[in-house]
Amino acid sequence: CIAGTYKEDTGSGSCVPCVANTYSDTVGATSSDTCSGCPPNTRSESGSDERNDCTCTRGHTGPDGSACSACAPGEYKESYGDADCSQCKPDTYSSTPAATSEDTCDTCAAHTESTEGSQENADCICEAGWYGPDGGPCEYCREDYWCMGGDEYACETRSSSDAGSNEIEDCTCNPGAVGPNGGPCKPCTEDDYCEGGTDSKECPEFSSAPPGSSSLTDCSCNPGYKGPDGGPCTECESGDVCTGGDAPAQKCPQYSTSASGSDEMSDCKCKPG
Fold first, then answer.
1. 245-248 — which CB contacts under 8 Å span 24+ positions?
2. Which of 81, 178, 202, 209 is the most exposed, fewest CB within 10 Å of its CB?
């Protein structure tokens, strides 16, 4: 009898194959006891004639002829043999060891995501722009916050963001403040105006603005000059008084005059005679 078979009786009967999940490398075997069982988590066809015919069962992996290990949670293996276990795709998970089908991988909840080979629902974390507990449910990130990895973070002082923001740089400085995206944001300095964001702008010539100004029209003409808020500002003419801002020039009293750039009535002096 060839290896993988045996014959216990004398006579002309046929040799009997070793049953499935066993093997025998003995030639001329006279007993079924010659057929050895395959290592754990392996299988073989009937009549197998060597240990390497014992290959891993589905859901297990390892070299032919050796005990095979179960695929870890987050993995599966649909085929027999020594192939590696496959990992569950991103945005899915499986807590089942020794899984034999991709169907074991459950889909993460809405607006959550997971990495390849995730093993439990808690591995599904809220996607960028959403926040909530691991595994969900997740809520849309609120205004003036940014959300990443399931957590919600408030924007820095004097900055704000749109709903659904997903990184700190989405927090931009408010009008009246200036600084890098993500902060820190500082109040706009005197004689500048800040419309929000990363840049401040100088008031037009001969005008100024208080600290924290947020628009061009916060720049008012200086005393001794006249013009609309936001400029342009021109020097007060001789014989007039300009108190600043958008106030119109005032004429000096009769028989008096002033030098150009005058900013108060006491600058009006009586004319000769």
1. 245/220, 245/221, 246/220, 246/221
2. 202
In angstroms, how far apart are the furthest CA atoms of the chain? 159
Q: Dihedral angle at the C-alpha atoms of 208, 209, 210, 214, nearest 10 degrees?
A: -160
Q: Where does residue 132 fall: left (phi above 0), alpha (psi -120 to 50 degrees), or beta otherwise?
A: left
Give how far the C-alpha of residue 32 lies from the chain's centroid of Cα atoms, to the nearest Å: 63
Residues 207/199, Cβ–Cβ less than 8 Å = no
What residue type is assigned to position 119 of the chain? Q
What pLDDT score was predicted for residue 49?
97
In a 10 Å sphere around its CB, with 0-12 CB exposed, 13-18 middle and 19+ buried, how is residue 104 labelled? buried
Query: Distance of CA 110 to CAs 91, 92, 134, 149, 232, Å?
Result: 10, 11, 12, 14, 56
Residue recorded with tokens 């003036």: 144
Q: DSSP 3-state assignment of 105?
A: coil
How far apart are the C-alpha atoms of 257 and 239, rounded to whole Å?
4
Q: Six-digit token pair at 136?
A: 């969900």
Q: Mean of the pLDDT values across residues 156-175?
A: 97
Distance in angstroms (rounded) separating the CA atoms of residues 264 and 258: 10
Helix (H) or strand (E) holding 225: strand 225-226
Whole-angstrom distance, CA of residue 88 vs CA of residue 133: 22
For residue 111, name the pLDDT band (cuts at 50, 70, 90): very high
| Cα separation, 177 vs 27, whole angstroms | 91
Q: What is the mean pLDDT of residues 155-166?
A: 97
